[in-house]
Amino acid sequence: MMCALFQQEHVRLSSGVCGTNKRTVCRAAKLDKKTHAHVCIISKQCTHPKWGILLGRLDGRTANFTGASNLPSSFDNLTVLEKKFRDVRLNTVDLVALSGAHTFGRAQCQFVTDRLYNFSGTGRPDPTLNSGYRAFLAQRCPLNGNGSVLTNLDPTTPDTFDKNYYTYLEVNRGLLDSDQILKSAPEAQGVTAPIVDQFARSQDAFFKSFAHPSMGEIRCNCRKVNDG
Ligand code: HEM
Question: What is the position in ligand 1's atom list of the atom closest to the CA of 76?
Answer without folding.
Answer: 5
